[in-house]
Every structure is written in structure tokens, then in C-alpha cells.
Amino acid sequence: MKLVVRLAAAASLAALAAGAASAEIRIAHVYGKTGPLEAYAKQSHTGLMMGLEYATGGTMEIDGEKIVVIEKDTQLKPDQGKALLAEAYGDDDVALAVGPVSSGVALAMLPVAEEYEKILIVEPAVADSITGENWNRFIFRTGRNSSQDAISNAVALGKEGVKIATLAQDYAFGRDGVAAFKEALAGTPAELVHEEYVPTDTTDFTAAAERIFNAMKDLDGSKKLFVIWAGGGNPMSKVNAMDPSRFGIEIATGGNILAAMPAYKEFPGMEGATYYYYEIPKNPINDWLVEQHEARFGSPPDFFTAGGMAAGLAVVEAIKKAGGTDTEDLIAAMEGMEWQTPKGLMKFRAEDHQALQSMYHFKIKVDPEVEWAIPELVRELTIEDMDIPIRN
Fold first, then answer.
1. Burial (CB count within 10 angstroms: exposed 0-12, middle 13-18, buried 19+), residue 302
2. Strand ranges (DSSP E) for 74-159?
3. 110: Cβ contacts below 8 Å, ≥ 6 apart
4. For residue 174, what are the contacts with CB-CB under 8 A and spacing of at least 6?
5. 9 CB contacts (<8 Å, ≥6 apart)?
6. Which of 136, 138, 165, 237 has the fewest Cβ atoms within 10 angstroms?
7. Residue 388 pairs with which residues in a beta bridge?
């Protein structure tokens, strides 16, 4: 009899343990923690965790179920990202995944989400093809895409009489970015006259700059070199050191992380468009993010902190709306879903699951009391201001 009681008690404990395990919402963050984009990755993870915290009122629970975030480092290797996402879905039994940083890694991961029939929220990889030709119905993206970057920058630069050359990295991010920028610029009076692509690890831009200068030196009108770049190398400063102004060429680019912004001090008055700068959006979520980030880390939140937070907020909103973590219920809940972020309103477009969102036309201001250049707001470009193509 005692043996029966012990066995019954053991079975009860096992059932309770199983129940406790099932009362978890597991999320994988699959991203490049190490490698050239480590700074982006750190911001993204900080933002993700702060987004989950804000959306759950600090409990890190949804309807009594604890959120568990499992981190996996792609090291910016596409094959590793693919394998780690499969491991997260298969072995770790996550409900969904967030990441990665690199567009090349993201493109390798997309088919894994389809194979396992589980959601991947892409943040912050940018290439258009992620929600374009390589997209599948399990992919949602909170990050902006190349078209959103391109259209907002085309609005900022595409004026009458302007001739533009581009300098970009020779991989998905750079090529998709230029293709989208070229398309967007076609709707303006400006003209794209030259495209230059260099390897992602380029540090000597002499040859590329000379080709650009030769292509533009004899042109009339206002001449701009638009740089699309992620990570190190500092192409803007290095090209500027070759004095493009002798050919009447001015450098232009989009926004960047704060660590890159001191280099922008060389370009007072430069115009472009940015995804985020902590002083621009005026809303309660951004106020909380700025206040808490400065209190915890002694610095303002950055580009990808805001993006990571948008992803975390989307996760909680989607699970609450779906009433659980069933994939089909989540897809139904997320298609057309609107939610508030540090940038204000975002909306998942039903056709391609791209998050529509504001971008910001800026003009660079230099303040000697601030260590980086300040992208002062010229105009907020809202969801309604940008016609983002559907590419799938």
C-alpha cells in the first residue's frame, strides 16, 4: 500500500513538473552576438528584453506563463544561423524566434521557419528579399526593409538637378539597398548616374572613390555620393579625406548607430533619412525606453535597441491577441496587427508581413557639447507618406 502511495505521489510530482515546463513561453533570439556586427546585436537583444519587460508590466509573463528567452549566436555565418534556428524549433521547442542581424544569415534561415512551420520575426536584417522573393508565410519583420530606407532617403535627396552615385557593400544588404534606392529615386527629379560595390570588409576605398569621381567629375548640377554601409570600414570619412569637393561631390547617407555618428560631424548640413534617433519620436514608450536605458546603461538607446524593443512588444501583443502560441493562430493574429513601439505605430502588412512604420528625414547639426552629430528632424515620413512596394 505504501508503495502504491509513493508511486502515486511520484506520478503527481512528475505531472506537476510537466505542467510547470509547459507553462513557459519559449522564444529563441538567434543573432550574431559575435563578429563585425556585434554592436548591432547587443542593442537588439537589450531592446528585445526591454520590450518584453514593458509589454508585460515587468512580470515577464503572459497569462501566467513565464517567458523564457534562449540566445543562440550565429557568428554571422549563414549555415550556423540555419542550424541554430532548426535546433531552436526542434530541440528547444520554442514557440517562435527573433533575429538575425545579418541579411545574408536571415535569407539562410527563412526556409527553416517554413520547414518547421513556426514563426520567425526578422529583426533587424534589412534586405528587401527577406519579405520579398525569398519570403514565406511564417516570416514577419519588425525591422525596416531596404525599400523603407530607400524611399525615405530618396525623399530627402531626390531634388531637381541632383546627380547621385552610390557606394555599397557587395552582398544582400548593399545590393538590395541600392536596387530599392534606384527604384525610389526614379519617382523624383534626381538621377542615379553610377553604382559602386565593394567587399564587406573593405578598408581602402581609394580605387572605388576614383571610379566614382571619374564618373561624376564632368557632370553639371548638384552631385551626391550616397553611401549604404553596415559595420566598420568608415567609408564616408575615408572618401571625404580624398576631397570629393574638388569635383563638386557631397557625401550623403542614412542614419546610423551612435558609435558611427561622430564621423558625421565632418558633414554639417548633410541630409538623409533615418530609422531612429532617440530624441525624435515623442510618445510614452520612447520616453520610458530613453529614461530606463539611460538609468541602466548610462547612455541613450540606439538604432537597434528601438528595433529590438519593437520586436519584443510585437511578440507579447501577438500572443495575447492569438490567445496562445499556436502558429496558425499567431499568423491570423499578426496579419494586419497594429501595435505601439518607440517609433509610434507599426503595422504588419497582411500581404508580406512587413512592418510599416515611420522614417525620419534629418539634417545633420553639429554641437560641440555632444560627442556625435545630431540628426535633427526635418520631417517625419509616416506610413501614409511612403508607398512601400510588395515584392513577393
1. buried
2. 96-98, 119-122, 139-141
3. 120, 130, 134, 135, 136, 139
4. 168, 197, 200, 228, 229
5. none
6. 136
7. none
State the Cα–Cα distance between residues 364 and 370, nearest whole angstrom.
12
Residue 239 is placed in which grid cell? Answer: 572618401
CA–CA distance, 18 with 11 (Å, rounded to integer): 10
- Kindly report the number of other CB atoms within 10 A of residue 116's CB atom: 18
Question: What average pLDDT does range 112-133 have in this prediction?
Answer: 97
φ and ψ at residue 345, rounded to 5 degrees: -70, 135
Phi-psi group of 75: left, alpha or beta (phi > 0 → left; psi -120 to 50 → alpha; rest → beta) = left
Question: Which grid coordinates are listed for 257?
Answer: 548607430
- Please state the length of the chain: 392
Q: Which backbone phi and psi does 73 adopt, to 5 degrees? A: -100, 115
- pLDDT, tens digit, for every residue of 205-246? 999 999 999 999 999 999 999 999 988 888 999 999 999 999
Domains of the chain: 24-144+282-356 (3.40.50.2300), 147-274+359-385 (3.40.50.2300)
Instruction: Enumerate the β-bridge partners of residue 227.
Output: 167, 253
pLDDT for 22 equals 53
Q: Please, which residues bridge with residue 339 across strands? A: 346
Q: What is the DSSP string of 282-333?
A: -SHHHHHHHHHHHHHHSS---HHHHHHHHHHHHHHHHHHHHTS--HHHHHHH
CA angle 35, 177, 204 (to 5 degrees): 55
3-state helix, strand, coil in the chain (%, to 5): 45, 20, 35
- Can you give the pTM of this predicted structure? 0.88
Window from 20-34, 105-119, 137-151, 250-264 with minimum mean pLDDT: 20-34
Residues 6 or more apart from 6 whose CB is under 8 A from it?
none
The residues, ordered by sequence, that sit 6+ positions from 40 with a Cβ below 8 Å of its Cβ are: 32, 101, 124, 230, 257, 303, 304
Cross-strand partners of 221:
none
Measure the CA–CA gap between 163 and 82, rounded to whole angstroms.
41
CA atoms within 13 A on the CB side of 37: 27
Which DSSP letter does residue 229 get? -
pLDDT of residue 331: 98
Q: For residues 51 and 293, is the Cβ–Cβ distance under 8 A?
A: no
